[in-house]
Amino acid sequence: MEEKISIEEIRKEENLVFVKTKLLTDKSLSYCPGCGHGVAHRITMEVIEEMDLWADAIGVAPVGCSVLAYEFMNIDMQQAAHGRAPALATAIKRLMPNKLVFTYQGDGDLAAIGTAETIHACNRGENFTIIFINNGIYGMTGGQMAPTTIPGMKSSTSPYGRDVKIMGNPLKITELVATLPGTYSVSRHSVHTPGNVRKAKKAIRKAFENQKLERGVSFVEIVSNCNSGWKMTPNDSNIWMEENMFPYFPLGDIKVDGELVK
Amino acid sequence: MTEEIIIAGFGGQGVLSMGKILAYSGMMQEQAVSWMPSYGPEMRGGTANVTVILSDGRISSPILVEYDTAIILNQQSMDKFEHAIKPGGLLLYDPNGIIKHPQRKDINIYSIEANEEAAKLGLSKIFNMIVLGGFLKIKPIVKLENVILGLKKSLPERYHHMIPDNEKAITRGMEIVVEKNVAN
Amino acid sequence: MKELRLMKGNEAVAEAAIRAGADGYFGYPITPQSEVLEYLMTEKPYEKTGMVVLQAESEIAAINMVYGGASCGKKVMTSSSSPGISLKQEGLSYIAGAELPCLVVNVVRGGPGLGTIQPSQSDYFQATKGGGHGDYRLIVLAPASVQEMADFAKLGFELAFKYRNPVMILSDGAIGQMMEKVELEEQKPRWTDEEIVEISPWATTGKTPDRERNIITSLDLDSHRHEKHNEKLQAKYKKIQENEVRYEKIHCDDAEYIFVAYGTSARICQKSIELGRKKGIKIGLFRPITLFPYPSNALRELSQGLKGILSVEMNAGQMIEDIKLSVGTTFNVEHFGRMGGVIPTPNEVLEALEQKIIGG
Ligand SMILES: Cc1ncc(C[n+]2csc(CCOP(=O)(O)OP(=O)(O)O)c2C)c(N)n1
Ligand code: SF4
Asked: What does the alpha-carbon distance between residue B111 and residue B180 come to, in Å, rounded to a whole number?
């Protein structure tokens, strides 16, 4: 006979299996249900809590769906102009070298309008961390083509699918920054399964540890879904991501301890 | 006393640094000074000029169209500035490379063979100091000791060993400057 | 002990910034202001005071570095010339919106477009009326000498922090490039971390247990709340207008006519006054030192005893609008200017006064 546990029982402290980190505010997330941004926020904040760096952390929010990241991340934060987060972070880290500095950016922000800031910060070897959410689309503005929209993928500005002859190629910015001497670790992850979340979290932790050791830029890409922009259910979007995004943006390490992975 | 000077010639003749040393010298005797160089495309084609003003009072405009003194070191500058000298003012020039000598009768004109002299002394680098010496002979607006102080201020430490040569050049300039025309 | 030096305007503003205890400079080369960055890279303040100096990849990056540094309560600055300042407008709008202190130096050259590298005052509107998007103001200081380039670095930082507002030093190529005697103040120490927390408790210095987290943003999606924020900004600008007006009057006591001019134009007008007074014309100069806040009341008062005003500007007539707002449109006010990097001569300024104001 199966024993049924009452709701009251579940809510008892000793039965709790998950506690939300103090580094997330109680504000409910403005992201669409099923969107990867929320998980990426959570693991980033958990790592900071686990490393006991609350008082050191300064984050820079982008322009994009995560423009309001500062509403949810309960740490000191700055909100940058579109694409300029690496410039802000450059100054923050240089002026306050003992702080833990990171940017949190989408693909339009990091790889289109902010390409110059991204590449130059990475090339200079600025000692901060970049968390890059690649959902292959401009979520915030309603699903337009992004620099990481893959060939054939539909968006509101590539309604028949991205035709590289007309619209040009997607930009593998992560592979690109990995070739720069100023990046120390570059890797690609996802947050759509528990196993992948654990790996992504480990990568963020490693990136922050590298920063403490003053190794240069650690760059963590998270390939994520944008179920709204892709016009799919959350579940379908995750399946579509596995089948279409991962072959183009393979997960794993790209640069480890300053060396490109063969 | 206010002295408004234009120094003009080729880049590389030390036009700007002569102006700078003059300005420093004025500063050493507690005068107000300004040094306004030509810059950018104006300097293409190799000409350079600088307006230097020394004054016991406040300096009004650092940019001028009329000067008490013009120190001219090439033909282009002669063409441009001979007519910008105030009546009764001073024109000092090095005849080397000058094809059209100055014509004005209402200004005082002096020449100085500084280029030739510098070559003779084997000190082409301090050609401009010979010219400066010539100018100070005609218009002793700054004391020699203040010029030396000015040199010390404007030259980086590693060039201080050259100060005696500079002093020698200034003295030589004072000896070789020649009067050409007295304002009528 | 104060120190006397012969310096270019561009060098003076850089040296004075170091001495004012600046924490960071972020810039990108452009004539006629590259000496600012060159001077700093030569002086290496990062070895002496710990001041960060960085050549950014663009003016856009530079102003955003300033944004980042200012958000941390640091004394940060950038400098550029007109085309570069246009690129910085986005960042300046954000900085003004987020109410951050910083210093921006514009060594103006002639425009529009790539224009010329010669001195100009054609960025007056851009500097004083906003420049970027949104309802905001910069505090604008107009130096007319190398000494003021130095003085305004310190004053600029002071005003920036007093009002949590960006301050612009609106200079021009002539003042940037010329050398004059400068009296430099003693080196001030940079603020310590503790001082920064005390002076700028709003800064993102890391959330310590004793306070709520600090957020720097210019965004508010609730328009009513955002209107309140705008009202707060406007109230601040009003306070600045009440308290921070600066100007200079030269030979105005017995003047029948005055020039109104700032920066290099004001210097030229002083020569025109020498020339004019020799001819028996009673001319003076009213020199606005703050262009925002504009010294309207002082000018209005002064105008009561005058027969006419000539606005002398190195542009097509921009400041004259503020003069007319000050003294009224029926007053005898005319503009004389040269454009495109041409500097007016003292004689032509005097002639313009004689023809447009005295004769007119
Ligand atoms: C200068 C400027 N241009 C355009 C915009 C409009 N805009 C806001 S967010 C955005 C794209 C964001 O896409 P991404 O970085 O991929 O983030 P996501 O929303 O997908 O998370 C754009 C184009 C802007 N805010 N500023
Ligand atoms: S639009 Fe896309 S990226 Fe933005 S919150 Fe929704 S699902 Fe996420």
From this structure: 7
Chain C residues in contact with B42 by the CB 8 A cut-off are 118
Could you count the other beta carbons within 10 Å of the beta carbon of residue C171?
31
In angstroms, rounded to a whole number, what is the distance separating the alpha carbons of residues C48 and A49?
36
- What amino acid is encoded at C301 in this protein? E
**Percent of chain B residues past pLDDT 70, beyond the cut:** 96
The one-letter amino acid code at A81 reads A
| pTM, entire model | 0.87
Find the domain containing B66 and state its range: 2-181
Is the Cα torsion angle A16, A20, A22, A27 positive or negative in sign? negative
Residue C356 main-chain phi, psi, to 5 deg:
-85, -30
Handedness of CA A238, A242, A246, A247 (dihedral sign): negative
For range A19-24, the mean pLDDT: 94
Least Cα distance to B127 among B8, B6, B12, B3 occurs for B12
Q: Which domains does chain A have, with CATH numbers?
A: 26-260 (3.40.50.970)
Using DSSP's 3-state secondary structure scheme, residue C170 falls into strand
Domains of chain C (ranges; CATH) run 3-193 (3.40.50.970), 248-358 (3.40.50.920)
Contacts of C43 in chain B (CB under 8 A): none
Per DSSP (E only), the strands in chain B are: 2-10, 32-37, 47-55, 67-72, 85-93, 108-111, 178-181
Q: Is A94 on the interface with C (CB under 8 A)?
A: yes
Q: How far is CA A238 from CA A31, A158, A193, A204, A224, in A?
A: 16, 21, 9, 21, 8
Report the complex ipTM: 0.89
A partners (3+ CB pairs within 8 A) are: C
Mean pLDDT of B2-18: 92
**pLDDT value of position B41:** 52
> Cα–Cα distance between A194 and A201 in angstroms, integer?
10
Q: Do C60 and A54 touch (CB under 8 A)?
A: no
Q: Give chain A's end-to-end CA distance (angstroms, integer).
A: 55
Cβ of B23 within 8 Å of Cβ of C178? The answer is no
Residues A40-51 have a mean pLDDT of 98
C-alpha of A118 from chain center: 14
Q: In this complex, which of A67, A76, A81 lies closest to C204 when CB atoms are compared?
A: A76
What are the structure tokens assigned to C192, written together? 């310590």
Average pLDDT, chain A: 94
Kindly tell me if the per-residue pLDDT of C48 is higher than 90. yes
Contact criterion met (CB < 8 Å) for A117 and C215: no
Chain B residue with Cα closest to C347: B65
- Phi first, then psi, for residue A189 (nearest 5°) are -140, -175
Which CATH number characterizes residue B83's domain? 3.40.920.10
